[in-house]
TrEMBL record, chain A:
Chief subcellular location: membrane
Keywords: 2Fe-2S, Iron, Iron-sulfur, Membrane, Metal-binding, Transmembrane, Transmembrane helix
PANTHER family assigned to the protein according to its UniProt record, in alphabetical order: FERREDOXIN-RELATED (PTHR21496), RIESKE DOMAIN-CONTAINING PROTEIN (PTHR21496:SF0)
Domain spans labelled Rieske: 233-327
This protein's record includes keyword Ligase: no
A Pfam match: Ferric_reduct
Source organism: Leptobacterium flavescens
Domain of life: Bacteria
Full protein name: Rieske 2Fe-2S domain-containing protein
UniProtKB/TrEMBL annotation, chain B:
UniProt keyword Membrane present: yes
Upper classification of the organism: Bacteria, Pseudomonadati, Bacteroidota, Flavobacteriia, Flavobacteriales
Identification of the protein by name: Uncharacterized protein
Annotated keywords: Membrane, Transmembrane, Transmembrane helix
Top-rank taxon: Bacteria
Record-annotated membrane-spanning stretches: 12-31
Organism: Leptobacterium flavescens
Amino acid sequence: MGLNYQTVLWNKHKKVYDKLIVAFMLIYIILFAGLTFAFNGETTIETLIIRAFGTLAVIMLHIILAIGPLSRLNTRFLPLLYNRRHLGVSMFLAAAVHGVFSIIQFHTLGNVNPIYSVFTSNLDYNSLANFPFQVLGFLALIILFFMAATSHDFWLKNLSPKTWKRLHMMVYLAYALIILHVFLGAFQQETSPFTIGFLSIGFVVIAVLHLAAGFKERRTDIAKAEKDEVNWLYVCTVDEIEENRAKIFTVGKERVAVFKYEGKLSAIHNVCKHQGGPLGEGKIVDGCITCPWHGYQYLPGNGQSPPPFTEKVATYELKLAADKIYLNPEAFPEGTEVQPVNC
Amino acid sequence: MTSDLRKRHLIMWIGIIAIIPALMVIAVINIPNYPKDNQLSKGLTVNGETVLKTVEAESLRLRLLELRSGTFLEVQVLQPLKSSSTAVYALNNDLSQGVFIGQIGSKGPYRFPAAGNLSGISVFDTIKEEEITKIQF
């Protein structure tokens, strides 16, 4: 969370993660080159670069796509989510090296524009064995480019979180295009079942993780709450919430986070204004509810970010009956001060 | 995330799971079955072989061999190929591209079953979709 835009928002943790990303990429490329020269010494340097960076980008994309559902299924993966953006930009750079070298190698020796050549050199769309797979990879690269180019908070703010999120959900389309790019391209000359099996297993793992996380969230979304005589909703008992943590509760189509801190209870809308992170999965740090995704903060009593920040979320009224917590399902306007309930 | 966004994620993944695996399976089923003999052979000399024709051009050495098991085309790649995916086709009498013979790759010898009256080959870049060269015996 920063008041002014910076080119790259680094902190101690992000620097560690970024060093790990760079180290992983370097080790992979060196290993790939070493094994290639050991087992296929005639490979040209251009082919080596195309293959090494292409496979690296595919592996990184799988890791990136696994982080989201893993974080939904187990909060121990949340630190990875915090740094996913840098991993995404790094993956795009690897994919860009693969794409640029492929275009140079396969499309710059003719007498037409290389990009035009990508789309016109093979028009055999009726053939699976000879499908113009490079077009699929090129389209995926364009999507990844727009995602990387707009990954900065400047674009998130100026495009609006809704538009930004829609744009970045296109990573799923890019993933589908890349899977088909590999299956209709490299695998059509592939004789080893291991590489085909490896990518197939990767797809199954990612798909299962997303489905598992999606259905888990769906169960929470459709859970029905018990009402009292004035239609307030029963949330849970006080003991069920850990100190400085929250219970996430579904009200209609919205989720509310009920936080317990310093002998008090407060409820705010669960969705962070930054990227829609689940505030209720965060904790109270220095008196502020802190989003687990990117550290955006809100005061529990009024749902406002501490000055000079201006983000604010809706607040809700709570009441206690014995040790049972009840919530008024009618939200207050964003940033409304609500007296915490003592517990 | 809002519930609408969560729902959209789930629907997208159900869509991906419904479509992509089917395309993956179809793609794998349709991988061309190149002749099994197109693997790199371990040696060039086989007892009982008769060399019917031979020619060397464009960093390729061709030999049409008569073996006990039939006629074979041997393509020896003398220098690494510039194209990353290279196919060999038989040449018809009018020098047009004929039947597919096999795929060649890194430096070394390759053997494919072939017709005894093979007059030459067309070497084809399957990615650029263009003929690299024609070689006639």
